Amino acid sequence: MQTISIKFAERSAEHLDDMLKLTLQAKWPHRREDLGMCFSVGCGYVALVDDHVVGTVCIAFFGEVAIINLLIVDEKMRGRGIGEHLMKLGLEKARECECRLVATADGLPLYRKLGFRKIETVTVHQGAVAPVKAPRGVEWATREDFEHILDIDRGAYGMDRKALIGTLWETARFAIVRNSGRIAGYAAGFRYGRGEIAGPVIACSPDDAQRLLSLIFSERTGAFFRVDLRPESGLAVWLNSIGLPEVGTGTSMCRGDGGPNGPRQLRSYGLATMQFM
Fold first, then answer.
1. Sign of CA dihedral 272, 275, 276, 277
2. Which of 40, 212, 229, 230 is close enough to 187 for a disulfide, judged by CB 3.0 to 4.6 Å?
3. How far is residue 114 from each of residues 62, 117, 219, 250, 274, measured CA to CA in Å?
4. Burial of 113 by CB count in 10 Å (0-12 exposed, 13-18 middle, 19+ buried)?
5. DSSP output for the chain
6. Contacting residues for 266 by C-beta, under 8 A, at least 6 apart
7. CA distance 131 to 8
8. 236 neighbors 210 (Cβ within 8 angstroms)
9. pLDDT value at position 274?
10. Are 271 and 168 in contact (CB under 8 A)?
11. What are phi and psi of 83, to 5 degrees?
12. How large is the C-alpha radius of gyration of the chain?
């Protein structure tokens, strides 16, 4: 193997275009704006050869939980330990945190080697959404609802994701459902990748989760949507029926003492993206 000088550095804005090239090479659907979301909620590292990015990893911090994502190595540079070194830099940065990620099949051996264990399988549903009627009892959120949405999210996840929800708030539309006048669930719809994402989806029941998604879909007939669905959500058959079939899976993993959330009245039915769980 040819000897090549590889340097590792903290990620910065000047690396964004090279990072985008790596995602395109990996056939991931990110736009420049999507990578910008990663910049807004965390930090990261890059591997450099002659000042060109040949590997990257990102870390988002939500209280005592770190979400690791966008681990990519240039296909011409694989087999040199770059991915493992980037992961170790990320894990050192997050050494005080429980670490989580969603793994592709290619990444599973490395993550297992580094001490990650499987939590659950996440299913990807996507396609052009069929006509869906707007349900009763669900409405669009207003500015006055923002803090309540943060409370709902914290109640479902057990962590403070204000940085993520605040970033989504700038571009997404949020659907909410109320119970006795109080917000009892929410879902967001926003532009991402090849089309749009519907998520996160937080609710007290599968019925409420479906109604929240229905409001988002009701105004976007024919739009290309993606939903990253948690297991046992009860929504897969319905999503299949409205033009969003299952097209793939990811493996949710954890390193540390954490794991699946315990029984909660509020729960997560769909992810913001696999990058942020």
1. positive
2. 212
3. 21, 9, 44, 18, 20
4. exposed
5. ------EEEE--GGGHHHHHHHHHHTT----HHHHHHHHHHEEEEEEEETTEEEEEEEEEEETTEEEEEEEEE-GGGTTSSHHHHHHHHHHHHTTTSEEEEEE-TTTHHHHHHTT-EEEEEEEEEEEEPPP-PPPTTEEE--GGGHHHHHHHHHHHHSS--HHHHHHHHTT-EEEEEEETTEEEEEEEEEEETTEEEEEEEEESSHHHHHHHHHHHHHT-TT-EEEEEEPTT-S-HHHHHHTT--EEEEEEEEEESS--S--S-SSEEEE-S-TTT-
6. 152, 155, 156, 184, 185, 202, 203, 204
7. 49
8. no
9. 82
10. no
11. -60, -45
12. 19
Structure tokens at 113: 């080697």
Q: For 144-165, how does the pLDDT look when each residue is reduced to its tens digit (9 = 90+)?
A: 999 999 999 999 988 899 999 9
What token pair was written down for 104? Answer: 């592709």
- In the block, residue with structure tokens 């450099």: 48
- 222: number of Cβ within 10 Å: 10
For 189-194, the CB contacts below 8 A with 24+ separation are: 189/216, 189/220, 189/225, 191/33, 192/31, 192/34, 192/226, 192/273, 193/28, 193/29, 193/30, 193/31, 193/34, 193/226, 194/29, 194/126, 194/224, 194/226
Give the pair of three-digit tokens for residue 266. Answer: 């509020």
Structure tokens at 39: 């910049």
Both tokens assigned to 69: 């994502």
Is the torsion defined by CA of 111, 116, 121, 127 positive or negative?
A: negative
pTM more than 0.70 = yes
Residue 85 is encoded by which pair of tokens?
């070194």
Tell me the two tokens of residue 168.
Answer: 């989504």
Q: Percent of the chain, pLDDT > 70?
A: 96
